[in-house]
UniProtKB/TrEMBL annotation:
PANTHER family: NUCLEASE HARBI1-LIKE PROTEIN, PTHR22930. Keywords: Hydrolase, Metal-binding, Nuclease, Nucleus. This is DDE Tnp4 domain-containing protein. Belongs to the HARBI1 family. The lineage of its organism: Eukaryota, Metazoa, Ecdysozoa, Arthropoda, Hexapoda. GO terms for cellular component: nucleus.
Amino acid sequence: MNRKKNTKGFYTNLVKELKQTDHEEFFSLFRMWPEHFDILVDIIQPYLIKRSIRTPLPTELRLAVTLSYLAQGDSIRSKHLEYRLGNSTVYKIIHETCQALWFALSPIVLKSKNRFDWEQISNEFMIKWQFPNCIGATDGRHMRIQAPPNIGSSFYNYKQFFSIILLATCDANYKFTWIDVGQYGYMSDGGVWANTEFAQDLQSTFVDLPTPKPLPGIDIPFPYMFVGDEAFPLTTYLMRPYSCKTRGGLTEEMRIFNYRLSRSRRTIENTFGILTACWQILRKPLCMSVENSEMLIKALVCLHNFIMTCEEKISVHKRSYCPAEYVDREENYTMKEGRWRQQYSAYFTDIGRVGANRAGAIPVGLRNYLKDYFVSDMGKSQAPWQEEAALGAKRINLPPELIE
């Protein structure tokens, strides 16, 4: 059967035809348009060159096998039958192509940032999400894997399945800016964030962040920082919301601060959501070694950034990889959930607390300063709807028994 791949295989008989005649179906199979597929072939081809007496499989075929496997989320066996390739050949193709995608694309779409890159990201967060000096949102997810042999419970998480952890940051446009893949699934305490090289470099000021810059309308310099949820530690470079367990309850100013931070933090939730909605392989345990699972996830992150970058030149309402309705949006001061939440949120598992809850005096002071800034005249002018959105019924003259 495998010998007929050149005459009866899926690639020869259908993929080439779709590439010429049905671009929408081609996108459905591979999550990208034919022109972007061709660009990607040229990028990864040098990483797939083989020295062999036998004629190597074309890069186009290797990429088609890998993308359809990742996009459709089906089995190695199904690809073996579709493309008329051996089971072991398909497995090897997918692993080698994921490696090529990571090594070829990561320097392009996930490159290390300098202070000018961070400033650009900050400007976009301010324009889109009205959060000054924000250089990204961060969060983590458990990525399901099959039980590794002879490992014990290291990968068994608090939700009672085997996983590796993906920690990431993103920009204002739902593109990943940094990732850490592979920490044990059982790690759901303060060690997860602290164990990453990125967090250690931030703590040691090795990351090339911009120098502190005054908030709009203020003369006092204020540091650049990431935003995260309550699972992350509060530091001078990472801002998190006030806890709902705050002694005495949350004040109105705290609620407004949490609202402003949440709007920015949702970018990372949506980034993870788009990734899982588009690549169905992530909706089930990855049936491969831990090392290959890590490489597959890295390749998917690069593919996500590559396609998001390709679609930036297309009108938002005409995009296919990330349509406008896929992500969260605001309507009449109310957050409308993106389509990915309605369809795919069940495949996500938060990693739990990843940093210490105790914060030093300086980070606490910075958060309080930013809280007061948001309710100042300048802060209100950036998001005039914030009181209505953050306080809701508390600003409406309802009977006390109807107010939370």
